[in-house]
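Continuing from the previous page of notes. For each protein in this section, the sequence appears first, followed by its structure tokens. Read the first protein now.
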Amino acid sequence: MIGCHVGRFFQVTVAGGSYQEGLTTVIQGLPPGMVFTEQEIYGDLLLRKPGSDELSSPRKEPDLPVIYSGVNAADTIENAGNRNHTNGTPLTILIPNLDRHFIHIKQYQDTNRTPRPGHASYASFKKYGPDDDAIGAGIFSGRYTSTIVAAGYTAKQVLKRFGIEVFSYIKEAAGVSCPDMQSSDILEHTERYKKMRHDLDPFYQEVYVKKRITEDMRFLEKMKILAQIENQIDQIRSLAPVMTAQEVADKYGVHHVVNCPDFRAAEAMLEACNKITKTGDSSGGLVEVRVTGVPTGLGEPVFCKLDAELGRMLGIGAVKGVEVGAGFAVKNMTGSRSNDQLRSQNGRVIFNSNNAGGITGGLSTGQDIIVRLAVKPTSTIDIQQQTIDKYTLENKTLAAITRRDPTIVGRIWPVAENYTALVILDLLMAYLGYEQVRAAVRS
């Protein structure tokens, strides 16, 4: 398998599977002197983990990360104060699988002869043969996206040093759309939504806020605690702070489930998804990512254009389309309507529109970058489906499956946000290097 690596200057390599010992992300290109805590990384991981609300799978993986390498184990000289600082070597983050019980493995063993429609199980069996990691779909499972979120979180922290913000939300779910809004309002909302999720997540509170795991512990000490947590998942989940939907709205100003900055649209999305779920079926939606503060000229034509690199997000499971700016709607526009006309105002270039999504010729224009991902309905449904026996090619009927995500769109937005950060930082490093060389040549 050679497709588990991305990036040129900021590189990420991922490994693991849904029911292996866990997952791993190895990050190269982080500058020395940065501090990342497992609590911070988990703060993003909890946004995409299963079992968090009524629209996600009941699997109870806590997705607790462990920083394994890439940081100083102690002060490099006495009282240097650089313990746990990144040191320029690859940063390795482990995400152990804790909700990995035999009863669930047995369910896969009993059904793996019959590929689930919409999943990779038939194609991966043909590619890798009988040793294909078919327990929980292996690296084709949505669980692998936790590695993207962990890596992307570190990228976002570097980007913030340059005034670049990357944020995402649910633009559409089950046919219900969020109206257009200003980037500043969306960013403010997503920050409040994340704060709500942190405050109400029992693992965030019980493991990190109460310092059951700290950065001062050695790796094996953390493993001992994780081994205990594996047997306490239900107990810890029962400690989750309880707030009504109205209490969440009053305190945080967000919807209690759906990360959509328009409250009425968020509630309508939830109702529409639940209505479909009751029939045993699933629903899809649209995720929008925005990036602000990007300098003009980011991107490397011809084959590494900014929009082309963002198109790599087709590699996120369940994503079937990526569009930038007006996207596919340009097919119905005239040139005069599609073009983003320019004018000068107080020494600044102003665009009258942003149909290009902040990218022309594969280069950033200085406007907000806007990219949307079309997310298909969850393939695992509570309805019988037609399939085959992949060994004998006999026609079979796949029984309804209840342990599933009613919709996956609510777990894709943090993946898209963090994947976008990987792309932006990789190209920013190329951009800064080019600018440095250009300045030296001109001097």
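Done with the first. The second protein uses the same format. Note its length before scrolling.
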Amino acid sequence: MPSTYEFTFLKDSAAKAFEPRHRQIINYNIDKYDVAVQSGLSRFHHIENAKRKAHIIKWRVMENLDKLLPEFESNFLKKGGKVIWANDAEEARREIWKIMERANAKTVVKSKSMTTEEIELNAFLENKGVATLETDLGEYIVQLLNQKPYHIVTPAMHLSLQDIADLFHKHFGTPLDATAQELTLKARALLRQQYTTADVGITGGNFLIADTGSIAITENEGNARLTTTFPKIHIAIVGIEKIVPSLADLDLFWPLLATHGTGQHVTVYNSILGGPRHVDETDGPEEMYVVLLDNGRTELLAQKEQRQGLYCIRCGACLNGCPIYKNVGGHTYNTTYSGPIGSLITPHLRGMEAFKHLSYASSLCGKCSEVCPVKIDIHKMLLLNRRDAVTGDIVSKTERLAWKSFTFAITKRKVIDFFKGKFKNFLLLKFFKKAWGKHRSLPKIAPKSFSQQWKQRNDTSA
């Protein structure tokens, strides 16, 4: 029996893939992205060498994670920061709430963070009576809609300008024909005061820097800088895989992230934060915490063949290149991380039995591997996930029997040639019509197989 997640995915993706307006919006936005990325990549003297170097650095990181993480912790503590190790989402939420309770915090401003989405922090804080506000414009928009982010980098990619104008008109009374600039200015006016009055600022982190004990945050709106500057407490929630050995590594990773994420040469704001405000500094928080989040990452690290998934720098390039994602959209995955990289890592982070179906949501065209800035062999990893689902005995008996029968037949020419085309077409119609989909016609199998036709032709010629 398929899991609840699998059933929902199949149902939602079948509907979304044939929704013309959705496809129009996504194709329009991704086409603009493709043009920008080509321009950004042209700035690299040799992009393949850059990607290969990034791959090697991330490989070394995973091989030495047990050394680099304590190095980061030691250096961060020296700067007055505090480190919290969280084994799972529940522990992360519990430790964050301890900080909030101790400070009697009632308001939170957040910059864009996929790890906070991963641990469902917003809902948790709201249930505790804490007002939590997303300050990234895309995140703010989906928060108003009470939705999850649609995309790793661009949370509101599925919305048109008119959709957002309608949303702002409903909530704030802006004109229905408001321009993008007018909507942005309205959001700025609404959010600006929140930074100065919030008790706590919460962010993610693009990179953890081991040798300096710092976190690096990259953004385009400046909201992360405001989130980390005004509130008295700053909490950064970062996955343990985000570490890089040295500050010098940002010289490679920042441009790779920018070009593959948005097509920019470098993002507008790049910040390196190393602890709370010192006595000789004029701004910054009085307390700074870094929550090092595991939440299934060590389980993926234990998979020697698939641990490449932890190399991901969350640029979103594989989503934009994936034909499946471009048709079914981000929300259908029902996971924090969608698209090819989400299909690779989610079964390990959240359970193979519940999410094995995502590894089959791929055409295996290899585009995801081609565009990855750290050269993760994503489509191969998806095949390995499929293998693990079978060897782990979490596929149905019907599926196992069907493939066993198919393998027996397809590897024996006499069996294939024994059945006529008419019977084969009957089998297709009987057992595969529903799986093939109502929008496509089943292929017609010829009355005779190729080998039979070849033999007949050669016999006739003789």
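What the second structure shows: Residues 43-295 form a domain with the Rossmann fold fold (CATH 3.40.50.10420). The mean pLDDT is 93. We return to this in next week's lecture.
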